[in-house]
Amino acid sequence: MTEQYFLATKTLVALRWLYFAHIKNQHENTYAFDFMAYRGLANFLVRYCTARHDQFIAAFSDK
């Protein structure tokens, strides 16, 4: 699971720089909106990875 978190982190860092490069010359309000959209994407991916990890642990636990 650590590898998946590492990959997700690398992906989010790449997306962050892509967003910042894309909206660098745009209006402030658009910048704030896109930044919040990026935060929403990050939260979604973290929740998805965590849920999948919990399912994996539950499937292979002896409890």
How would you describe what is shown here?
This protein has 63 residues and is mainly α. The protein has one domain (2-60). 86% of the residues lie in helices and 0% in strands. The protein is built from two helices and no strands. Helix 1 (2-22) runs antiparallel to helix 2 (28-60). The radius of gyration is 16 Å and the shape is elongated. The protein starts with a helix and ends with a helix. The model has no long low-confidence stretch (mean pLDDT 69).
Secondary-structure blueprint of this entry?
Blueprint: H1 2-22, H2 28-60
How many separate domains? 1
Helix content: over 70%
Which structural category do the helix and sheet elements fall into?
Answer: mainly alpha
Terminus-to-terminus distance = 20 Å
Query: DSSP helix count?
Result: 2
Q: Give the strand content.
A: under 5%
Rg (CA only): 16 Å
Overall mean confidence score, pLDDT:
69
Topology as H/E string?
HH
Biggest pleated-sheet summary: none
Outline type: elongated
Oligomeric state of the chains? single chain
Count of extended strands: 0
Indicate the low-confidence ranges by residue numbers. Answer: none
